[in-house]
């Protein structure tokens, strides 16, 4: 832009100079003509010629000089015009490019605007359609969900019924197995290894099924089989394992005590005697006046009496036995007398135990007589 301005200024001054030249030519005076003539015609070239020819020559020389300057100026103007034309072309191209960029920018803006409008339009249509589809799907899913919930409930009910039936079947089988084992043990008609395995398996099944009510009964059968085979350590471990976890049967403690009494009777094991008395006391805590436990305590005290080496030891044995008789006879119920007499009578049939019963008859004849009377009355009452 600055270059163009400079060129225009130059053209302006050039034209101005040209105009001044023309005016100067028209206003030439004689002195100027003479000066020009002198410039045109040198001193050495002076030749006398007629005035008419001289004027013509002078005029030709001057015209030639002026024409030369005019031609130079025209050339200069042509160059200026060419430059201006080139600049115009350049400016035109630049303007065209600017215009093109503006048009393209406008087109791009219009396209973007139309694209946004089109996108918003189609997005609106798509979103509307998606909402309809979503509502339809949600409706179908809700129906399917309700149907599935009903099916699941039906399946769960069937499963619960099946579980209940299976549980009943398992309980039935457990009860059958328990009754079968109990019968064999009571009748003493069983194989030790097979029966012990069946009992331990049954106990595990009952624990897995969480049938806690049956555990004390199975433990009671285990104490009986351990007593039959004089397994004192096993019965002690069994009592220790379940004590505090279940409510033992009174007979379980009696069976455990019998294993200790057996060792005390055969091997004079003082420790086993003490443990046997502990088990018998626990049995009596569960069933006060339990005749079997009372009878076994009397037998232990008679063992003490017969093995005593000093009168003091014998007196203690008599004192302990008398305490048991007092509890039995002071009981309003005849059950303790009946059960105690029954147990003593049964054990007296064993050759190795008969001496303990005989010693009781010797030392406590009156007490045994009173017990027998109460036992007879009780027997009559339960037979009515």
TrEMBL record:
<keyword id="KW-0812">Transmembrane</keyword>
<feature type="coiled-coil region">
    <location>
        <begin position="138"/>
        <end position="172"/>
    </location>
</feature>
<protein>
    <submittedName>
        <fullName>Uncharacterized protein</fullName>
    </submittedName>
</protein>
<keyword id="KW-1133">Transmembrane helix</keyword>
<feature type="transmembrane region" description="Helical">
    <location>
        <begin position="70"/>
        <end position="90"/>
    </location>
</feature>
<keyword id="KW-0472">Membrane</keyword>
<keyword id="KW-0175">Coiled coil</keyword>
């Amino acid at each position: 832009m600055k270059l163009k301005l400079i060129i225009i200024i130059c053209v302006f001054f050039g034209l101005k100079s040209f105009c001044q030249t023309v005016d100067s030519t028209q206003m030439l005076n004689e002195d100027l003509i003479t000066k020009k003539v002198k410039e045109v015609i040198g001193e050495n070239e002076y030749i006398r010629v007629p005035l008419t020819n001289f004027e013509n020559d002078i005029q030709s020389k001057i015209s030639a000089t002026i024409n030369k300057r005019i031609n130079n100026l025209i050339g200069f103007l042509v160059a200026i015009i060419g430059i201006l034309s080139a600049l115009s072309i350049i400016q035109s191209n630049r303007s065209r490019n600017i215009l093109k960029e503006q048009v393209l920018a406008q087109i791009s803006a219009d396209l973007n605007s139309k694209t946004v409008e089109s996108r918003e339009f189609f997005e609106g249509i798509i979103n509307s359609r998606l909402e309809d589809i979503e509502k339809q799907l949600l409706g179908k899913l809700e129906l399917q969900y309700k149907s599935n919930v009903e099916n699941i409930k039906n399946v769960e009910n069937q499963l619960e019924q099946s579980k209940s039936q299976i549980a009943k079947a398992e309980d039935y089988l457990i009860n059958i197995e328990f009754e079968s084992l109990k019968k064999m043990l009571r009748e003493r008609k069983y194989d030790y290894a097979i029966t012990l395995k069946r009992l331990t398996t049954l106990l595990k099944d009952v624990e897995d099924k969480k049938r806690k009510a049956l555990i004390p009964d199975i433990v009671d059968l285990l104490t009986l089989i351990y007593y039959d085979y004089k397994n004192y350590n096993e019965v002690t471990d069994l009592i220790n394992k379940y004590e505090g976890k279940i409510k033992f049967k009174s007979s379980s403690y009696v069976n455990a005590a019998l294993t200790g009494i057996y060792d005390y009777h055969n091997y004079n094991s003082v420790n086993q005697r003490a443990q046997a008395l502990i088990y018998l006391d626990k049995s009596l805590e569960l069933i006060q006046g339990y005749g079997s436990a009372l009878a076994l305590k009397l037998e232990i005290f008679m063992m003490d009496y017969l093995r005593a080496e000093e009168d003091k030891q014998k007196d203690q044995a008599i004192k302990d036995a008398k305490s048991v008789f007092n509890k039995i006879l002071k009981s309003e119920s005849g059950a303790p007398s009946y059960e105690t007499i029954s147990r003593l009578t049964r054990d007296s049939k064993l050759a190795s135990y008969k001496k303990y019963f005989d010693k009781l008859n010797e030392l406590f004849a009156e007490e045994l007589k009173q017990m027998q009377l109460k036992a007879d009355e009780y027997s009559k009452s339960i037979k009515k």
